[in-house]
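Quick log. Single chain, no ligands specified.
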Amino acid sequence: MKLFKNIIIFLFFSITLFANEFTDIKTFEASFIQTITNPSGSKVLYKGSLHIQNPSKIKWQYKNPIQKSVYIKKHTVTIIEPELEQAIITKIDKEINIFTLLKNAQKITNEEYLSNFNNVNYTLTIKNGKLFKIAYKDEIENDVLLTFQNIQQNHKIDEKIFKFYIPLDFDIIKQ
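-> predicted structure:
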C-alpha cells in the first residue's frame, strides 16, 4: 500500500505542477523511469508510461519489472495487477484543492521548483519547458526519482487509454 499511497500523492502533485507552471497544458504523456533507493542504498527500478488528461483522468502503466495499471478518475483509483489476478478499487474521500497546492510551488532556479505536499518536499526539474524529473523522500525514507522521456503535451489522447476492463476471474478488493 505504500507504493499505492506514493502514486496517489505524486499524481495529485503532478496535476498541481502543470497548473502552476503551465496553465495551458491540457494533456501530458510520457514514458517514465521510477527509481526507489532505500536508506541502505538498495535500488528498485520501475518503467512504464503515464497519460494525463485534464481535468481528472490519469493512467499509470507499469511495464517493468511488474505489469500494473493505475487509473484515476475523479474520486476513484483502480489498480489492476494481472500477475496477482486482482484489482484494487479505492475511493478518495477528500478532494484536494489544487489551487491551494499551487501556492506551495516555488522556483529555486530556472529549471527547479520546490513544493511541499502532505509534509513531503518535492524537487521538480523542468527541461525545455516540460516536466523532466521529480525527486522526493517518501514516508519510509526512500529516495524516489521519477524521470520522464518522450514527453508530449497538449495533443489529443484517445479516450480508450482511460478505459479499463477487470477480468471476471480477478479478485476485486474495495477500500
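The chain is about 15% helix and 50% strand.
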